[in-house]
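Hi support team,

I've been running sequence recovery on a batch of backbones for a student project. Most finish fine, but this one hangs at about 90% for roughly twenty minutes before it completes. I'm not sure whether the input is malformed or the queue is just slow. I've pasted the structure tokens below so you can try to reproduce it. Let me know if you need the job ID as well.

Thanks,
M.K.
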């Protein structure tokens, strides 16, 4: 059986033509019968004739436009879910917690979408948990957030 037939047979069995690192495998000697020298059977390593052609290394990072960098950073500039939930827990005590430093810090970490979500959630609080906030209280919350950002 020549090497072309071996490669076709390997492809037919579903043997990948690339290794785990993305390099191409030369299957010139891949269908050797019996274990490779130094092994007792089981899963065999590559035979001596198998060559790996490595994929090229990635290019070094280049400086990018500051506007692009700002856009990327603003995409990921939002508070963690746990921060939002901790803020909601503290806001259940009412408007008076807006003067506390922990509440202000958490409020400053929110992005615009998260701030609107918090504003909606405090208006929908159930009576058995805490009184729902009025529109004036929510307005004060959002104004405070804008002033401390």
């Amino acid at each position: 059986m020549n090497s072309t037939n071996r490669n076709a047979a390997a492809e037919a069995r579903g043997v990948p033509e690339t290794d785990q690192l993305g390099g191409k495998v030369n299957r010139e000697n891949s269908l050797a019968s019996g274990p490779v020298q130094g092994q007792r059977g089981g899963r065999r390593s590559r035979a001596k004739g198998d060559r790996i052609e490595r994929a090229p290394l990635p290019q070094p990072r280049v400086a990018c436009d500051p506007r692009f960098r700002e856009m990327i950073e603003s995409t990921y500039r939002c508070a963690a879910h746990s921060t939002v939930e901790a803020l909601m827990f503290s806001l259940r005590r009412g408007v008076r917690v807006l003067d506390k430093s922990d509440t202000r810090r958490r409020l400053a970490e929110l992005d615009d979408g998260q701030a609107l979500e918090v504003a909606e959630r405090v208006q929908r609080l159930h009576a058995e948990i805490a009184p729902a906030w009025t529109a004036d209280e929510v307005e004060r919350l959002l104004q405070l957030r804008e002033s401390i950002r």
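--
Follow-up from support: It reproduced on our side and the slowdown came from queue contention, not your input. The chain has two domains: 1-58, 66-148. No action needed from you.
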